[in-house]
Amino acid sequence: MATSKKRACKRWPFVPQDRFPSFTRIAPCIRRLVLQQQQQWRQQLLHARELRIQTTHAFTAHQNSSSSSSSNSNSNSNTAAGTPQHRLSASPRAALGLQQQQQQQQQQKQQQDAATREATATDDGADSDTAAEGAAAAAAAAAAEDRRDAEESVNNADDTDSAAAGGAAAAAAAAAASTSAAGAAAGGFVLQSETERLVRSWWLRRHLAAKLQQRQMLLSLLGEVQQQRYALLAAAADELREADREEEMQEMQAFKEQQQQQLQQLHETMLQKRKQQREERERQQQQQQEAAQRRQRDSKRRKPGDTDDAAAAAAAATAAAAAAASTPTAPPAPTGKRERGSSSSSKRLHSDARETASAANQEIQTMQQQQQQQQQQQQQQHLLLQLHQLQVHRRSPQAATAVLLLLKQQQQQQQQQQKRQQQQQQRRIERQNPPRLCCSRLP
Fold this sequence. Notes:
- Residues 60-162, 243-373, 410-443 are annotated as: Disordered.
- This protein is mainly alpha-helical.
- Among the domains are: 23-80 and 92-242, no CATH class; 309-318 and 344-430, no CATH class.
- It has nine helices and no strands.
- The chain is rod-shaped and about 185 Å long.
- The model is unreliable at 77-90, 123-129, 160-166, 184-188, 328-339 and 437-443 (pLDDT under 50).
């Protein structure tokens, strides 16, 4: 048999708003917070990139200006001098030194460009150790180049006095221009050297890495908050399910108790009805015994020859009654004492015949009633067994209610039958014992 359908929970999904606000209420605030953080981080990244680009442009402009000024000063000093001493100073050795300086400047520029590319590529934050190592390497390279320039200038002091003076002036002018450009770009902060620029970029990278780490922490915290919220929602749902389960169990227990009470009431009513039926049966048997004893007494009093006369008189009386019923006539006037004696004897015989017929009918009816009562009792027992089986097997309560309705209908039918039987018995008793008139006082 199919299992019973579970009752739909009316309280699900139910979450108290004051303790566990819904995600639809929290989601706009969370989205707004995330968008604000993203905008702030984007602005910070853009600002850092602009600073880095400005510093790189200023450094490249400084390098270009220094190289162009040194070349222009050398060319001007060589071309402007009209004396043979200056013409002789433009020796191949000096030209080779200038070429070496230009190559070194180009290499330094390439290294700086590579460093700037690496800095721009690693926007998500590089390690502080790599930045410090890069700054130290750049500073060491710059110091080595300065030493080489100093040695070459010492070796070529005779040939390149004017060129060195012009180059120093050009380098000072270029340094002043680059510092002014960097100060204007950085908003008042002047970068004195490449090491300062590298240190500043390292600090910017570190700040950016801290910001990214803070962003990751915020995201992880947001994830934890969401997980805690989901866990709280799941716990609330479990509590609601347990409460619903407890309510269902209580309802089932109350329904079982109600069924047990109804069964007990039915059992008590059945016992009372059986007791009443037993008493009625005993009363009927007692009445039958009394009637039989009365008949035996009457038969003993009568003579054996009076029975035939009584039967004939009863037949005549029935025929006369039928004729009188068909054609009603006036009652005959009483004639002598003999007629009165014959009429009284015929009445007695007729009453005896009626009593015998009524006793036989009563016996037949009692037998039929007993059979009907036995059948009804069997049906009730069968229904009670079915109800007990349903309760034992925990089937659907609809079948139990149907069985109870059948039992109630049968009880109502039994009550109606008993009422009808009682009415029929009263009618028979009234027919058997009609009101007698006192004939002794008649004339």
